[in-house]
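Example record for the data management plan.
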Amino acid sequence: MATNVSIVIPVYNAEKYLAECIESLLGQTLAGCEYIFVNDGSSDGSLALIEKYQREHPCIRLMNQSNQGVSAARNAGIAAAVGEYIGFVDADDWVESDMCEVMYNAAEQSQCDVVLANYESTIDGKPFIATFEFPSFCLLDRDYLRDEVLVLFLKGWTMNSVFNKLFRTSLLRRYDIVFRKGLAFGEDRAFVMEYFAIASSMVYADKIVYYYREVSGSASRNLEKSDYFNHALLMYEMDFPEGYANLLPPTEVSRIKSIELISAIMSYIHVYLKPDNGLSFWRKYRAIRHVLRHPAVRFSLPIYISEPKKRSRYERWFTRFMELRSVLGLVCAAYFSKLRNHASIGG
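Corresponding structural encoding:
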């Protein structure tokens, strides 16, 4: 039987949720699928669990490598895939039983290069459904991609995930599109932007097929190993692929990058200020002080603040303390925000 779809699943210490992920894949209604699990040096029971399922299901392929990160694991899966199209699933997420069928049928009927679908996630304890304002289940050609889709990558993060897309395998290999190693954040965005820069057509499947799980503490566990700030700067300074030239004026691109940088910095500061991340107060203090003094942050912060967007009182106070370079102010703001959230849920 021909393999229509290869699903690449990087796995690193995902034992807690892995069985649910595997079961959702094995329940797919499309027969011509292979599931490539890339064990990225897990030290828990993930490997044994995959091996157990593999003995019973020939559609499961297993690759083992030393811990090299999610980008290297996905690249290994891409190199091994034999399917006409490639998709990606995270080991702690799960999918609808007809995900592969819906997306592959959309790709096959239109012979498009990429299929985009909806997904559901949880933000601050509330469900969020990502949908897109594109014509559904019809071929969107290169002109449409250039005029309506590519510009969205420059304006925000709504299109950046890889897990809700199906990519043509031959196109990935022809243009040697792979995930950039060494990025703590933004590896999905760089990959998807490069692919859309050369894709000639797309179909939007207006259906929820993927469920993204936020795993608490995953970022804070790696604070000592990962320099999130430098990764944010790398994304800020990174040039867009050639296909994005002249879509927006340079001043608008600069404005968008500044807003994204400050948004990322605010998220990272919150992670650093979590009481359970294993860092000493002075380690947190020095890290945040370094961030607040950086020239890129000083340049971008006024642009972020001047945006005509309705912000909460807390966010206004938070950016004000950033503007004043007051680490203690940020500590107090985060503390009172935590107290308020506990009070609102009766904690």
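Summary line stored alongside the record: The chain has two domains: 5-211, 220-344.
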